[in-house]
Amino acid sequence: MRPDTPAENVDHTAEAARLERTAGLYPEDAEALLLRAAAHLELSGDRPTATTLYDRLLSSPDGLENPHLVRALKASNLWEYGHEAEARAIIEGVRVASPGDPAPWVIVAESLESHDELEAAHDTFTEAVQHLLSDVEEPPYATHPLLFGRHRVRRMLGKSHDEWDALADTVHSLPITLDELHDPKRVWSLGSENPAELEAEILRLRAELGAYREALSRPFPVAVLHWPATELSELLEAYPTLASEYPTHEEHLATIETALRELSASGTPNLGIVTGTVPSYEAFAASELSSPDDTTLLPQYATTLAARGRAVAWPPQQGAACWCGSGRAYGQCHGSAA
Prior knowledge:
The protein is mostly helical and 338 residues long. It is built from 16 helices and three strands. InterPro entries: SEC_C_motif, TPR-like_helical_dom_sf.
């Protein structure tokens, strides 16, 4: 599916089938590709088949990069076609596991919210922000939906602002405040005959649409290619001419960090790192009818990996391990000069 294809013109069933076939060709990317296929199946209304894909992923003998995300998506999908008890059990399991990734928290909390379980949704959002944002100086972009969702639910419950709501206000960048966007009385404005009230509501809806478009405009990160030491040695042994790109592994790592900081300083958002392997790169070169020693393929390979969901966000969260694989915290490794 082309990125510019209008949503109403998408054949979700056909797109899901295409993604399943692609997953068979790229087993290392199967998790990301099958999750996208399941999303298309949900949009097509074929929720039972989407559940089958989630089960297929969860039973994978090789394990998953983010099993909590898959479970959260499965729970949300199950609840939508009548399997409430099973969905609730999975949601409780996700909450008990306390994942370090914001996405599973957002999915289960919003699932509870959409089924009018506002107190449970509020508790889930609160657990998430306390787990992920305590002692964090600046909330990472991926955690913003947790703060906004918690703020929204608290407004519906009539709770007063607290410190997490204040933090949500600080990261909110749209011209209309969160209090206005999350005002429970807004629904009544849509039935008003007062032109001023209707105009105000249209402005709010435009602001919300702008937020969604901003999120959708970041389909995958601007990614820089990283070769682990063993992979780089194998790559240079097979294709010596690439030594001009990678004089040493240490210089390669330093170049990655420098490039990402320069991109960040220039205002480029949504940065990430993708990790290459020699077999994957050779397969990509073959698919492009080119030779792996063609240096122009390297950025294309990085972009392709990012599009398949292989990118890891940069910079790592505070206290997280460095992207280079040293095992040290990012702040004590490549992030020490930040």
